[in-house]
Amino acid sequence: MATQGQIITCKAAVAWEPNKPLVIEDVQVAPPQAGEVRIKVLFTALCHTDAYTWSGKDPEGLFPCILGHEAAGIVESVGEGVTEVQPGDHVIPCYQAECRECKFCKSGKTNLCGKVRLATGVGVMLTDRQSRFSINGKPIYHFMGTSTFSQYTVVHDVSVAKIDPIAPLDKLIVIFWFHDLCIRYTLHIGLGAVWNTAKVEPGSIVAIFGLGTVGLAVAEGAKAAGASRIIGIDIDSKKYDTAKNFGVNEFINPKDHEKPIQQVIVDQTDGGVDYSFECIGNVSVMRAALECCHKGWGTSVIVGVAASGQEISTRPFQLVTGRVWKGTAFGGFKSRSQVPWLVDKYLKKEIKVDEYITHNLTLADINKAFDLMHEGGCLRVVLSMHV
Ligand SMILES: NC(=O)c1ccc[n+]([C@@H]2O[C@H](COP(=O)([O-])OP(=O)(O)OC[C@H]3O[C@@H](n4cnc5c(N)ncnc54)[C@H](O)[C@@H]3O)[C@@H](O)[C@H]2O)c1
Ligand SMILES: [Zn+2]
User: What is the ipTM of this complex?
Assistant: First the structure.
């Protein structure tokens, strides 16, 4: 391939400073080094995690940087020692790596691989602690080990999930195919919370706090697991309209009640729910989500990401009497091993994907895309990489 081993100059949306509009720039992307993969990004989606770092509230946020962590693309070239993917492979970059060698990976109990975290947490690559992005010699930080708001990105090979390419690569099919993958990636956080972390059984009563994209994916997972009652809780009653399509069959707006929301739920469920999921990132809602669980067995899963420095609290008696408090990152899915499996489920139409995409724009419109994301009625904005 002509670009192999060369610096590629391409377009990327650069966050120069917190809270300032992203700027489409010509960025130089260095070739991948040992254990690295350079990917031509075809589609990327936006997520609140990008917005959070961009806002400047994320203490780990580094500027200037290239944000973005939900995407699908094609391998352009690989560095020395990379054996699992090769140029032309269809891939999804994953912010949660899976090295299969560290003690986390080997434990079989968690997806929190530790291999590249020290480097990705500070916006560089592991090999030489440098960035592969620069503008006229000035380094631009990576973000979450993915940086997908760029037409080309370099990631660690342990962070790349290879996807089965669908047979006839007719242009349109490729477009739709990748199109859907972008969303697939966020979606599985919700599904994983239900299938891997909580292990919801048929007939369960489930409460979901926050009916954004993540909450809807939890609802879909709960429905697929056979939950009988799926109670959605949101301060925006309009959210119930969409949520019904994803399996939510009861709705409570905490603002309609004088009593604390956990008490309202306990009253309506004969003592509490079997499973609850906090999909907002609000620590007082996390407490409510635990306390609305049934004594003896109720399990509450924290999916939402609270602002840095926040703490959760409850009376220890809540746990002594059998409630369980859990958390999940990346849905508990092992990235490289299980992302392809999820894609397969999608192809077999076992899980919804298309329904989450409410807007399609291009990289050039990325600032508009962020505005849309903060509006009601928007689930996922997918960007193609044209400018
Ligand atoms: N654990 C993970 O792996 C992971 C991955 C991605 C995102 N997240 C987190 O999941 C959370 C949800 O993400 P999203 O994209 O669905 O967000 P979103 O903003 O689209 O949805 C949040 C919903 O919560 C509702 N809400 C806000 N405050 C509320 C309150 N006090 N009571 C009831 N409802 C309330 C809002 O009206 C909205 O509908 C975020 O914290 C995000 O950072 C976690
Ligand atoms: Zn590992």
Answer: 0.95
